[in-house]
Amino acid sequence: MTGPVTGPTTGPTTEGSAPDVPAHGAPVPGVPADGAPVPGVPVQGAPAPEQGASLSDGVPVPGAPGAGTPLPGGVPLPEGTLLPDAPVPAGEYAAARVAGGLVFTAGFTPRAGGAVLAAGILGAGLSVEDARPLAALAAERAVTAAREAAAEAGVRLGPALSLTVHLAATPGFTGHSRVADGAGARLRALLPGPPPARTAVGVASLPSGAPVEVTLVLATEPGEAAPESAGPGET
């Protein structure tokens, strides 16, 4: 027969359990309960915080919806960085041509991930704020086509001289210039020189139901440009 056990103890225990360990299912101090939100970690299914979507070089586009935000027409922006589709013609025409020291581009719509990001009509469910980042994306695609054409001709791309922005809009829509500013701001980030001359025109419809189409005329400079990567896509 043994005598009583003497010495320090850590508290009452039961057979098979460790001292100071909470029972199964009991909360552990400092550790969130199962299913509880963890600080700094978004809850699954909760709306993402507003952020500026970025184009291929990671520069935020003012007014752009955050990644995953559905645009009018139900098409969500791709998660993460937006990668504009490469300027591959969708018909019997060139994406861009060099002539007389100038680069002339085809009209480019806002395509990424193999599709137009949003279809719609300005003034009929599509706002200026929706369309500005789409104009910026279309402008970037036009610049990419111009760079590729300039590289093939052995010259370097210079500043944009002329910017034409076609907008699918209702007859009463009057925000053409504000939408076109999205394309102009993108050109400033991509090209040297002063801003181009610009025309913004409202039309009844555009290819693939796109709300905006951008066309550029650009100068060239002597010197060889670095080649741009290519991929699938349409203008």
Summarize the structure in words.
The chain is of the alpha/beta class. It has a domain at about 95-220: 60s Ribosomal Protein L30, Chain: A, CATH 3.30.1330. The chain is built from two helices and nine strands, in the order ββββββαβαββ. The protein has helices at about 130-150, 175-190, and strands at about 95-100, 100-105, 110, 115, 120, 125, 155-170, 195-205, 210-220. The strands form three sheets. It has a five-stranded mixed β-sheet with strand order 1-2-9-7-8, covered by helices on one side. Strands 3-4 form a two-stranded antiparallel ribbon. It has a two-stranded parallel sheet with strand order 5-6. Strand 1 (about 95-100) and strand 2 (about 100-105) form a beta hairpin. The longest helix is centred in the middle third of the chain and has 25 residues, at about 130-150. It is globular and about 45 Å long.
Terminal residue distance:
93 Å
Extended strand count: 9
* Secondary structure category: alpha/beta
Which ranges are low-confidence, i.e. pLDDT below 50, for 5 or more consecutive residues?
Answer: 7-19, 37-81, 226-232
Biggest beta-sheet profile: 5 strands, mixed
CA radius of gyration is 28 Å
The CATH topology of the domain at 96-220 is given as 60s Ribosomal Protein L30, Chain: A
Helical stretch count? 2
The top-level CATH class of the domain at 96-220 is Alpha Beta
Kindly estimate the percentage of residues that lie in beta strands according to DSSP. Answer: 15-25%
CATH architecture title of the domain at 96-220: 2-Layer Sandwich
> What series of H and E elements makes up the topology?
EEEEEEHEHEE
The shape is globular
Question: Overall mean pLDDT score?
Answer: 74
Strand order of the largest sheet: 1-2-9-7-8
Helical content (DSSP H or I, runs of 4+): 10-25%
CATH superfamily of the domain at 96-220: RutC-like
